[in-house]
Design goal:
Layout: H1 3-11, H2 13-81, E1 88-92, E2 98-102, H3 118-122, E3 125-132, E4 139-147, E5 151-158, H4 160-195, H5 197-210, H6 226-275, H7 280-312, E6 319-323, H8 324-342, E7 345-349, E8 355-359, H9 360-376, E9 383-390, E10 394-401, H10 433-443, E11 447-452, E12 458-465
Parallel strand pairs: 7-9
Antiparallel strand pairs: 1-2, 1-5, 3-4, 4-5, 6-8, 9-10, 10-12, 11-12
Length: 472
């Protein structure tokens, strides 16, 4: 196998999880073994020390009652009835000379010369002292007590049995450790594989999306953990991207369609001007039409850029306190002549001191688009009314007309770029006004609502969140 695949395997999250899990499992097993080993060793040592002290107390009482002969009988009975050596017994005089010694032959390896050391003699309160073996790591644990008459009684026990039990415990653990490591590694691999299943689904979905399948989604595991949240957030992101890509495709199709007509006219007028190079007046008219068409194209492109900036969050807003009544007054003054020429009455209802926090020029453009649409689709003799109101949280500005209204099936689509309903086909326009209104309001953190009235007409309401909005 080449070094490339090996490097990729070493870098995989699954392998790292397996190694981490296996390491934690093995270290935990070693820690548990150490605790169990220490507990077992302490327990066995405690039992041995307790048996030494009990036996020492028995011998002390026996010596006081029966003297040296009693010790000899006790040592003889121990050798006769016990299958394995259990204790050694020593009686020493006040001068340290050994008067009686009973020790199994197997324990001759211990350094018995140290029984007369001051440390053992001064430990006549029953403390346990240890004599090392000359051949192995075992010890002879000895307890010393003073007896009446200046005598010293010593009793001891070898640690060989205890060491054998602990050695067997270590051997068992060593034998179990190899399969334990394998179990830990396999368990880590299994858990790593299970834990990364949602990630593999995510990778497969990303590959499908990269191949052009925008409908691909990650299966959401019902686990209630971070991976479920990741899958939900990823699907939501893909859906948003899909919607944006779809909208972009539709916008490009609509732009291509809407630009075809003015560009065709533009080219036709330019060719006509070239043919009429001897008629300056007609050439001037044609060039004026070219300028008008180019302005229309530029307006469309600039509006599309503004919408894109607002939707992507990069639109620069000059937020400040503005008087809503002055904003409405400017827009009414702008469209008052158009409404009057068409025989449409305009009415305004707005508190004089209603304040909103917004970008003045952007809001003026939003309101102008709504008023322009209202006038455009209101018949002669109709009314366009503008009403504003506010409270401590929001400012609402409504534009209402009594025109033909909007079909219910078209309401969700009127915000799409370059969308023009059946009633607007005969009217001039780019089909971008409402898209811009929605984008600018969302850039302000607000929203826009629309309702088609049963009695005819429509009402558009822009809503600005504004803690400073107060009606006095």
């Amino acid at each position: 196998m080449s070094s490339g695949p090996l490097k990729r395997i070493r870098r995989t999250v699954a392998l790292r999880l397996t190694v981490w899990y296996s390491s934690i499992f093995i270290l935990s097993s070693l820690l548990l073994f150490s605790i169990a080993y220490f507990a077992l060793s302490s327990s066995l040592a405690g039992q041995d020390h307790e048996s030494i002290r009990i036996k020492l107390e028995e011998l002390l009482n026996l010596f006081e009652a029966s003297g040296l002969e009693g010790l000899r009988k006790e040592a003889g009975s121990v050798k006769k009835f016990e299958k394995s050596p259990s204790f050694f017994i020593r009686l020493a005089g006040a001068d340290g000379a050994t008067l009686f010694l009973s020790i199994p032959s197997q324990w001759s390896e211990f350094d018995l010369a140290r029984l007369d050391e001051p440390a053992l003699k001064t430990g006549a309160d029953g403390r346990i002292e240890r004599l090392p073996s000359r051949y192995n790591k075992s010890f002879l644990e000895v307890a010393t007590r003073s007896a009446p008459g200046g005598y010293i009684i010593q009793i001891g026990k070898s640690t060989e049995e205890r060491d054998a039990v602990l050695s067997h415990f270590r051997d068992v653990f060593a034998a179990v450790m190899v399969p334990l490591i394998l179990v830990g590694f396999m368990g880590g691999a299994f858990l790593g594989y299970r834990a990364l299943a949602p990630v593999r689904s995510l990778v497969a979905t990303i590959r499908s999306i990269g191949a052009g399948r925008m409908d691909a989604r990650v299966p959401v595991p019902q686990t209630g953990d971070e991976l479920e949240e990741l899958a939900r957030l990823f699907n939501a992101m893909v859906e948003k991207i899909d919607a944006l890509v779809t909208a972009m495709r539709q916008s490009l199709d609509n732009v291509a369609h809407d630009l075809r007509t003015p560009m065709t006219r533009f080219r036709g007028m330019a060719e006509l001007a070239l043919e009429r190079d001897e008629e300056p007046e007609k050439c001037r008219d044609v060039l004026a039409d070219c300028v008008e068409e180019s302005d229309r194209i530029l307006t469309m492109l600039n509006t599309l850029l503004d919408i894109s900036e607002a939707e992507t969050g990069v639109m620069k807003l000059d937020i400040r306190d503005i008087k809503v009544s002055e904003l409405i007054e400017r827009v009414v003054d702008l469209y008052g002549y158009v409404a009057e020429e068409k025989g449409i009455r305009m009415s305004v209802s707005c508190p004089e001191d209603l304040i909103a926090s917004a970008d003045d020029s952007r809001m003026a453009r939003v309101l102008a688009n709504l008023v322009d649409n209202a006038i455009k689709y209101t018949p002669t003799g109709g009314t366009v009314s503008i009403e504003a109101q506010g409270d401590n949280a929001e400012v609402k500005i409504s534009v209402r007309d009594n025109g033909t209204g909007i079909e219910q099936g078209e309401l969700p689509r009127i915000w799409d770029r370059l969308y023009r309903g059946d009633r607007s086909r005969s009217e001039k326009g780019l089909g971008l006004g409402l898209s811009l209104v929605k984008a600018v309001m969302e850039a302000h953190g607000g929203r826009v609502e629309v309702a088609s009235l049963p009695e005819g007409g429509s009402i558009f309401t822009v809503i600005l969140p504004n803690p400073k909005a107060v009606t006095k």
